[in-house]
Amino acid sequence: MNILELVNKFPTQESCIKHLEQIRWSDKPKCVYCESESTNPLVAELRHHCNGCRKSFSVTVGTIFHNSHVELQKWFLVMSLMLNARKGLSAYQISRDLGMRRPTVWSMMHRIRKAMATNQAELLSGVVEMDETYIGGKPRRRNKDKDDNDNFPTIKRGRGTDKECVIGIIERGGKVRTEHHSKKDNKKLNFKSLRDIVLKNVDMFSTTLMTDDFKGYKPFKGIIPHHTVNHSRKEYVNGISHTNTIESFWAIFKRGIKGQFHFVSPKYLSRYLDEFCWRFNNKDSDFMFEKLLTNCIK
Question: What is the pTM of this model?
Fold first, then answer.
């Protein structure tokens, strides 16, 4: 839903409230405290009164909008701007667009990202690609840019650095899942940690796994159909074997980090991953805004 459509559909706080009530309760409001259906509307206050526990409540109680002094229309606008920006949008940019304080927008965006958390119930199947990437640190110096008289060493990349490790797993033509393998846990990235991610996200009986030549993936050959490409020998495609799909997702995510956010702390890295996964997994849906709104409410 673009900005003009959203403003026309939700011009007032009352219209936003009515839409949320329709999503949460359909035609029968229910008390959020005692779940009684014996309620009366408080029209002037845009709330309801429960005849059971004698409390008043609004549709936003228990949702990401609860106790927020920001109008719901602005909440909806922030959500729409985030969903329409394929490589993300910074809190500074949205605060300028909507005339709001940057800390307020930042807090709202993180609440929305929390509602974007991936549902892990459905397992991936078919051809599934798996790869790891590393986020943060200084820009690395490329060998082709190095002068013979330059005494500065080439900055390391990937494993062996202080960058944050993220593991991604994607079903070709389907959805993507990611997991932050935090440095602060002092756990090495090995077969055991990779296996746990696969078991949690993949249907082992109907999946063919595609990876690169990282040694942590080698034991998978004994438990699941497994094909590799040898990136260290500059082999990127071998028949149907490649990891180009997941690497395309990494490219989008890293463009967002570099071009929009510039820096993401390890504390909030998983939230940003949730945002990019949500957009990717729902990119073909005509009801992406409504699906996110439902998550925010329920």
Answer: 0.89
